[in-house]
Amino acid sequence: MKFAAIFVLFANAFSAGMMFLISLLISRYGGKEIFGFFSVILGLIVAATPVATFGMDAAIVRFLPVYRSEGRGSLVSRIQRFVLFFSGSISLLGGLGLAVLLVNFRGYDWGIGISTGVCLPLSVVLVVSQGIIRANENVSIAVMPEAIVRPLIFSICISVFLFARMETLSLISIVFSYAIALIFSNFFAFIVIIKKRYVDWNFESRIGFKDIRLWLNVGASVVFSNISISLINQSPVIVAGIILSAFDAGEIGAVSRLAMLVSFALTAVNSIITPFLSRAIIVGDKMEVQSIVTRAMAFSIFIAVPVCIVFYLFSPFLLSAFGADYLKAVPFLRIMLCAYVVHVAAGPSISLLNISGLHKVTSRIMMLWTCLVLCGLLISMTVYGISGGVLVAAISTAGYPLLLAVICYKALGIDTTIFSLRFLLQR
Question: Mind telling me which residue stretches traverse the membrane in this protein (predicted)?
Fold first, then answer.
């Protein structure tokens, strides 16, 4: 687990660094408006992906350890096949709808609309494929398609287009580059799945309706919490692009992209611990659950705090890399940095709640919180502009993990917060 944690950490650090450099290139050579447009489009893809997966990626991680413990190995492979085709089919329809939305309601040309629409099913299949690999406790390989292959190919494509167009970038070339990166990422994931024989491709083997219904019920509950998290993270950029301007969307996009780097360690840890949490919960080992959560918290916070301090002190330098126009966003970045430290300090509460069977409670809370956040963003940006939106975004980012951490402690007796570090001192 330690090796996996270190590898996933470096993989996510590589991904964050590459995406930061790509953002700089887009901002510098595409302009603030192009960067804002791309931030909005990327936000739409990220927000729509959980809808199209229908929570199946979470269901895989939850149920596969159970099926293995029950000796139902053949069902494991067949279920994973069903999830791939189910999510892929839904995402194709979603991609078509997204393309029509961008063209007819936002005024983009069909080239951008189709490229963006293609990105959605590719992103969905990638998420599900990684869930399959992760559920088979191969967490190190599971992160490679998204954290290494995608940003690497994306950066190469951007560089090629930049060189070919003589130091200028268009929106269509950026979106097309992202689509190519997703294609290569999926190709890598499917090579792993086929080579390891994780999926039964024999379509003559059937899956019971009872099992499918169980997975869909769990997925339907989990999907709402996943949608909510995506909307909380992406809504400031999307709302800014709708209410304000592409320039403002680009500014919030730069701030969000930098601030989210504080939490990349927690994101990495969440992808690692989920199968282990599931296994500990199955056997009813509460002490092991607390131990996993505490170690995850220690790992996350000891990385988040130094990153936050460095970014806080060098905020003007970091934002100036995007362009001189971004310097006025220094206070916004510092506010969001503090919010993400609080976010990390609350720990992996949402992962624990979903794995523990409390996904319905999580979904209801997150849906309510998301509605409040969206209303807050609409009102604050309309009245106070970008400053009001950043303040609401900071409150929402810090608020919901704390609320879920309290529920974890009340319902499960597990402390996911920074205060759980006391258990390390007691050992």
Answer: 34-61, 82-104, 110-135, 147-164, 170-194, 259-277, 298-319, 331-355, 367-396, 402-425
